Amino acid sequence: MASSYLLQCPNFSTNLNLTSKPTTLKTTPSFLLIKAAASSSNNNTSTSTATSNNIRDEARHQNLTNPQQNHNFSAKYVPFGADPATSTESYSLDDIVYRSQSGGLLDVHHDFSALKAFPGSYWRALFDSRVGKTTWPYGSGVWSKKEWVLPEISSDDIVSAFEGNSNLFWAERFGKQFLEMNDLWVKHCGISHTGSFKDLGMTVLVSQVNRLRKMNKPLFGVGCASTGDTSAALSAYCASADIYRAACAAHCQRAFVLSIDTDFDGCMQLIREVTSELPIYLANSLNSLRLEGQKTAAIEILQQFDWEVPDWVIVPGGNLGNIYAFYKGFHMCKELGLVDKIPRLVCAQAANANPLYLYYKSAWKEFKAVKANSTFASAIQIGDPVSIDRAVYALKKSNGIVEEATEEELMDAMALADSTGMFICPHTGVALTALMKLRKSGVIRSSDRTVVVSTAHGLKFTQSKIDYHSNNIKEMACRYANPPVSVAADFGSVMDVLKKYLSKTPKWCLGLEEPTCVATSEPAKVMIFGI
Ligand SMILES: Cc1ncc(COP(=O)(O)O)c(C=O)c1O
Ligand SMILES: N[C@@H](CCOP(=O)(O)O)C(=O)O
């Protein structure tokens, strides 16, 4: 009985939602109308009865016949930072709760004693055995770690697009050419179902929504504030679970988007108020369930290095859930004996939205929210991050660092990365800038194994690339811009342009003398003819 509501600031650029025309908050009646319509339930994900021998049926059969799959792993919510051994406050994951009694954050705490009954080698082998298969739900990079994520959910309730298992790209040329590094890697979390790392968290959250609906919990909607990535993931996973159909009349199988005249922080404040008034489940990372999925990217990095721990992991930060999720994934691997240390974490912020950076620079003395200014890294244009306490914890525990990137720095870094064959988003440009600064200062050494987390697909942020390469950004030199050359559509004009371009190349290239063998040091030219 749930539908999905999204609160977005108006200039979101990356929205992949299946939306109707955006409605402003002033049209509250429409909002209520959908709530009232949420009366029937028809969830084909959780009641898969149609075809036999699909992967979900096979998983069900396996559960019945393979007792090894029955375990006593469990998890619960505890106040963030509290010692679970002594804290008297805890909640079932089936409770709808986002804050502790004192108003603080929550954390999902796993029963480590049950998990520790198995040695690290067991977990490594189990996770490795599931990679790249189509077995439900373990073919997902998130659900391949199900025992560490949501151990008690039935595989039947899981809503998954087999997210995760993303490419860990060896940035050979970027590393060698610009940083004298040989062991630089980019974890492409944005090469994913809806083009950002949010899929990792949303599969967990929407699966739990599916479970709560089956338990007849009072839950009539799912909602988030968003710059565009969280909302895209929420829409897609709710659509995949057919959650809209259950909520609305047949003509309205899509998310309900409110375009609100404020920034992300304003939207976040509003969705928090709305979700405390209405039975709408909060899908932002304030809800600690999301981080259980996102932490699997850290486990995956270790797995991809054959359980060797990198020296550094650099993560762009906005609302600051993800930096903690990475810490948590690494920390669990250490606690449970899969590895013997964790990497140092770097959180990279845009200078135009840098409250964590300022806090770090004050030696953690005083946190002040800021008014986030416009940045090309629009998904991290956040001045009052909800997970500030989680981020500080992660950074302190990992001997971490916070860096920042100006607009020019992040755009230049993105262009340089693209010039070496990557195609990254501006947030990844922020993380690469942090790396470049830390290399320059010698903090990160040439031989350090370093992973930069790429959080979204470059294709979601093409306008920034077009602006940069057209030299169309006020007060920015766009030093690495590569604008197209306009040329008339006739052979002579094209040849004139090409001859000028190729004037420094050997004469045989221009057909002016017999070809000789090509010197291997001669760089090849790449020419693209387009409109
Ligand atoms: C593409 C992208 N990168 C980075 C972030 C920052 O992640 P977090 O808010 O968890 O710090 C976000 C969203 O916030 C995002 O959408
Ligand atoms: N960039 C995010 C901001 C919200 O982050 P969340 O992880 O707290 O949901 C977005 O895409 O909306």
From TrEMBL:
GO terms for biological process: threonine biosynthetic process. Pfam families: PALP (PF00291). The keyword Metal-binding does not apply. Residues 160-455 form the Tryptophan synthase beta chain-like PALP domain. Its cofactor is pyridoxal 5'-phosphate. One of its GO terms (molecular function) is threonine synthase activity. It comes from the Eukaryota. Its main location: plastid. GO terms for cellular component: chloroplast. It catalyses: O-phospho-L-homoserine + H2O = L-threonine + phosphate. It is found in: Plastid, Chloroplast. Gene3D superfamilies: 3.40.50.1100. Keywords: Allosteric enzyme, Amino-acid biosynthesis, Chloroplast, Lyase, Plastid, Pyridoxal phosphate, S-adenosyl-L-methionine, Threonine biosynthesis, Transit peptide. PROSITE patterns: DEHYDRATASE_SER_THR. Its EC number is 4.2.3.1. The keyword Lyase applies. Pathway: Amino-acid biosynthesis; L-threonine biosynthesis; L-threonine from L-aspartate: step 5/5. Belongs to the threonine synthase family. Homodimer. Catalyzes the gamma-elimination of phosphate from L-phosphohomoserine and the beta-addition of water to produce L-threonine. PANTHER family: CYSTATHIONINE BETA-SYNTHASE. This is threonine synthase. It comes from Populus alba x Populus x berolinensis. The lineage of its organism: Eukaryota, Viridiplantae, Streptophyta, Embryophyta, Tracheophyta.
